[in-house]
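Record format v2
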Amino acid sequence: MALGDKDVRVRLQQSALNLFAERGYERTTAAEIAARAGVTERTFFRHFPDKREVLFDGAAVLLSALTGFIETAPDGLAPLDVLFFAFNAVVPLLEANRHISHPRQEIIAATPALAERELTKHAAMAHALAKLLQLRGVSHLPAELAGHTGMAAFAQATTAWLDDPAIALSERLDLAYVGLKALWSAPTRAADAQTSPEAG
Amino acid sequence: MALGDKDVRVRLQQSALNLFAERGYERTTAAEIAARAGVTERTFFRHFPDKREVLFDGAAVLLSALTGFIETAPDGLAPLDVLFFAFNAVVPLLEANRHISHPRQEIIAATPALAERELTKHAAMAHALAKLLQLRGVSHLPAELAGHTGMAAFAQATTAWLDDPAIALSERLDLAYVGLKALWSAPTRAADAQTSPEAG
């Protein structure tokens, strides 16, 4: 049975997710992931540098899709509108990968070292979005602010949707978009000085 | 010479920064930091769990100051206006600590494991800001979005000011504030399809 490279990659990812869920991330080795996927350990390391990177393979695919939509979004859109144009355009891709993204998110949430790595990947993605906006004529500071603001909203929407699919991802993105706009207008009141927020 | 606890802490931080700058973070031990500060290794570990945490001690002080200003900011301010009210109010504190923050930032920028930890601290700070906004009646989603957006702008402004003090921190914050508002209005244009952004 000859498997293409892409099939092997997907199988390794699925095997890794299953083993991480069964035994925990720390107690799973690359060799075990390879065995579960029916390939050699050498094949595993031909695809991924270590077991951690199996979980972060999707970021490149996502960024590549976003790149195309940001480059070709209509003229005249404001920076955050360009980003939301692209976020909405990748909804079908994210929906098609939900069966992988959902268990992945549970493992990341349960493993602090992975959560820390995820934040680093998000920061890199925010920076990449900023670079793409600069290609549309946005200058450095607003591009960086848009990249980080957009990425925070995108991460919030996708995380909420992975946790609870009762609300569609496109609707989550709309809520985040409206929520961001209201940050400048909805009034707040001084807190009761007796109350303190919970730690954490 | 009897030193108060706070003096010892400051001395350990200053010694750590000096040694990290001289030898690099990886090649400096807690024992060496203690020796440079003129205290025992045991004293070091009474103040900090490990050499990494010496660099992240300021976050609690900063959050405590921000908390007070967010709780007592005038009624009627919008969520991001509350956060910028607090950011502006802590400018004197940040200016007073610049001689520590500046070398600290250079060490963090040069050490990927520390940069990753810094992002985790920023995410925790964004979440704490969100909790404080919820105490002012802001609901969960806009509070989280404001926390992350505000934190991104605050980090951008402080980092730019640490890199180049020719522009005052208060002015950096104003630029970030204006920049955030423009993300909804300044038009962009479709990128030249032949151009690609640099990686990273």
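Residues 83 and 150 of chain A are 7 Å apart (CA to CA).
Chain A has two domains: 5-53, 57-182.
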